[in-house]
Design brief:
The structure is a single chain. The protein is globular and about 45 Å long. It is mainly α. The chain has 5 helices and no strands. Helix content is about 65%, strand content about 0%.
Length: about 160
Amino acid sequence: MNREDLLNIHENLTRRARELMDKKNRDYAGRGGTEPFANFTRVESMGICSTELGMLVRITDKLSRLSSFAESGKLAVENESFEDTIIDVINYMVLFYAYLQYKTNKSNAEYNSTQLVPQELLNEAVKKFNREYQMEIEKSINDNATMFGDVRLPTTIYK
């Protein structure tokens, strides 16, 4: 493979990812497709977790699937290929980035889709995910501590 081959693969994957996002977002977005993050903001409105954490959980699901594939060389679900999962990761990352961009700029009178998300907001979103994820792990283990002889999880897993 050479550089041109790599760039052709990139162009093909991102084109296919955009086409799929257009179709799926019509299904998931609320109000006739005018709320592109509706399926993610619903988890926050239902009190399940933050919108950002909901997105990161979905990304983690896809990365776990790719990790299993890397270990075994095969996927159990036959109607979703390795390539489909890669495209899903691309789209979830775009959604995550776009949501952070929207959240940063929504207080502005005019939304500017070319403005970049500040690094501080990205860092804060990752820190928030780590804190919430750690709390979920601790709660799960502590809730089931009697099964493990009252073992308690240290509170310094993630920083």
